[in-house]
Amino acid sequence: MAKSVEEVRAEIPFLRTGTIYLDNAATTPTPQPVIDAMLEYFSEYSGNIGRGLHRVTRRASEAFEKTREKLARVINAKPGEIAYAKNTTEAINIVARGLKLRKGDKVVATVLEHHSNLLPWQRLERERGVKLELVQVSRECLIDPAAVEAAIDDKTRLITTHHVSNAVGSIQPVEEIGKLARERGVLYLIDAAQSVGHMPVDVRKLGCDFLAAPGHKGLLGPQGTGFLYAREDRLAELEPLLVGGGVVELVEEHKYDLVKPPQIFDAGTPNIPGFIGLGRACEYVLDIGVEQIAKRERKLTEQMLDISGFERVEVYGPHELKRRGSVVSFNISGLGHHDVASMLDELARIAVRSGHHCAQPTMHHLGVEGTVRASVHYYNLEQEIEKFTTTLEQIARELGG
Ligand SMILES: Cc1ncc(COP(=O)(O)O)c(C=O)c1O
Predict the structure, then answer these.
(1) pTM to 2 decimals?
(2) Which protein residues touch ligand 1 with a CB less than 6 Å away?
(3) pLDDT in tens, 126-137
(4) I need a labelling partner for 178 at 20 to 30 A (CA). Which of 9, 68, 76, 171 fits?
């Protein structure tokens, strides 16, 4: 039996503050069992990993490593294909720095990428002469796989796209892009920051080489956690971002041999409690059921989309509900996006995000400086969305222009 909304809400202490939290695309509140798993580490076995033989370090190492299995279950991968990262941004940077791309190599991305999936490639363009081509997208912010295919030439080494846009919520045709990447012999990296935990994500079905995701969003894990999936044969091709303690087989005065992936990416003391918490969070999300989460979020998103019928409100992104993730992005004419977000907070204690959402090229594409963004997770209530839509209608009616 899936965990009910009421059960989940009762287990998220932050919700007792009375905040109507519609900023789940930024980060999500933490359920008590996840907090408890971290507390247990701090109070019972807070040792370092892999650095000794005593029972504290053994227990910590085992719990830390176990999370790879749990993440692998969530995305249908193997534990050995999961590298830990501190967030999605780091996971993307591991690929960008690790692939050893050279002058003349080409990377294909889109104008809708989050800055975290743009700057790492721009840096390679600046530092190494790698060519970055950004594919244009439709007005509804959907990627056309044919446009991606047209951008591929014999220099193209990698395609990268987001799965779900954090700025407007569009779900992209990642399976089709994965298929054409395979046909053309090009690597494919998916930025799954807004999909893992929110909807079924199966890396085998997607046919991607790499997938970067956070622990602290859809998976309800702690901040400071994320991961990179890399297909078994690909992980070994990546040079780690950091080298140092904890990742060596042998060190001599002027040379070293590193351990094998995925532990090769764990130089230095990692976020041990965070990854132990993330393991518990994966179980928690699997207990609710990812299908259940997707179904409920779609229902809540449909309800949020009532605002598209309001006068003076413009909603961005796809019209079709099935092309939308759990993010609704909008503006009210005559009002600034930050003002609208402040009013929602002042009037009804509703937390939404405003600004460019770390996606300035997406804002250029839409012809706006920023938007207001409301984003849900499984635990949000219909009554909360109702409060959001009625408060917004009032703001638009009384103050919009
Ligand atoms: C699509 C997308 N990519 C990347 C990121 C960066 O994620 P993180 O904060 O985990 O580094 C975000 C964060 O909101 C995002 O939405």
Answers:
(1) 0.98
(2) 25-26, 87-89, 114, 116-117, 162, 166, 191, 193-194, 214, 226
(3) 999 999 999 999
(4) 68
